[in-house]
Amino acid sequence: MVQRVALAGVVILVALTPVRPAAAQEPPPQQQGQVNRPNAQGPRGRGQGLPAPGPNMTLQEMQSMFDAYALVQAQRVLQLNDEQHQRFFMRMNTLQDLRRRHNQQRMRMLNDLRRLWRDQVGEADVLVRIRAIDDLDLKFEGASRTARQAIDEALTVRQRAGFRFFEEDMERQKIDFLTRARAGRQGPG
User: Fold this and answer.
1) What confidence tens digit (pLDDT) does each residue in 131-155 have?
2) Of 43, 68, 72, 188, whose CB neighbour count within 10 A is largest?
């Protein structure tokens, strides 16, 4: 199901990406092994190319759409060859799934903690929930590090550096995307 949504997101992104003249699509010539560094001031700008979220899209649908967009952009920005792309795609999908599962589980646990806190349940019960969230975060940090190391194995050193820049830029674009989605739902005024 998630794969179908991600695939649909890629199809939508490709269909809705504005067509630019060929000269605007070609990156400047680079030295062998050099990586495009994503830059908010670059030709694409921040958030361009990513269609606006639909008014009835769920947060999960928006996340899947953005994850698909990020995979497409990674191919372009990191200039992956065919062998690298296949390995990178699988490993990046693993990292995205890991992040998504962690965020969902953490949100459930925080909501449970919030309920206990509001109901003024005993401190011992609250402390158990806090420790469970902390344990979840520690496990995620380790699993995330392992997943990122697996991605690094598919990349050259320069691409690894580019991937760090890319992730920061994607995080900014995700915030912009979600902000636009929220503003679109609230409507004018």
Assistant:
1) 999 999 999 999 999 999 999 999 9
2) 68
